[in-house]
């Protein structure tokens, strides 16, 4: 089951996105989530992610593994950077490195970006994984009143 595909979020049924965003194990890692993720939230989420594509030419995509919706992620504009975001259903958590590798190739080879960032909440226990991937910690940032640790990975070709 090594069939990893990035597809537009519009190709995923609302109920699948809503189920993912309300999964208790997922919610623990989403400090900006407040309350139940409803159909209305889903529509706003889709509009916001499409607006990133319309305005910047890139944004997150839905992720299918073996034809199954596994989550969403990719690069999205954040504070003037291309930020790596990833939200996966727990049964696909072992796929993070393979997904990241694809996104890093997109960022550095296709888009020729100088760097990408990753924002993690301070309490995230496995945040040092990004350091092992080559990211360096920078000054923290605040989004919607929530403080995040910011890590940057520089393109070795730049």
Descriptive tags:
158 residues, alpha+beta, Aminopeptidase, 4-stranded antiparallel sheet, 5 helices, 30% strand
CATH superfamily membership of the domain at 4-113, which one?
A: Gcn5-related N-acetyltransferase (GNAT)
Model regions low in confidence, pLDDT < 50 over at least 5 residues: none
Topology, number of strands = 8
Major sheet: arrangement of strands: 1-2-3-4
Beta-strand portion reads 25-35%
Work out the helicity level: 25-40%
SS-derived structural category: alpha+beta
CATH class of the domain at 4-113: Alpha Beta
N-to-C span: 35 Å
Looking at the overall shape, the CATH architecture of the domain at 4-113 is 3-Layer(aba) Sandwich
The biggest sheet, with number of strands, parallel, antiparallel or mixed sense and barrel status, is: 4 strands, antiparallel
Count of individual helical segments: 5
CATH topology name of the domain at 4-113, in short, is Aminopeptidase
**Which outline best applies?**
globular
* Cα-atom radius of gyration: 15 Å
What would you note in describing this structure?
The mean pLDDT is 93. The chain contains five helices and eight strands. α1 crosses α3. The longest helix has 18 residues. It has a domain of 110 residues: Gcn5-related N-acetyltransferase (GNAT) (Aminopeptidase), CATH 3.40.630. It has a four-stranded antiparallel beta sheet with strand order 1-2-3-4. By secondary structure, the chain is α+β, with helices and mostly antiparallel strands.
Short description:
The protein is an alpha+beta fold and 158 residues long. The protein has helices at 14-22, 24-27, 39-56, 96-110, 128-132; strands at 4-7, 61-65, 68-78, 81-88, 115-120, 136-137, 141-143, 146-154. It has a domain at 4-113: Gcn5-related N-acetyltransferase (GNAT) (Aminopeptidase), CATH 3.40.630.
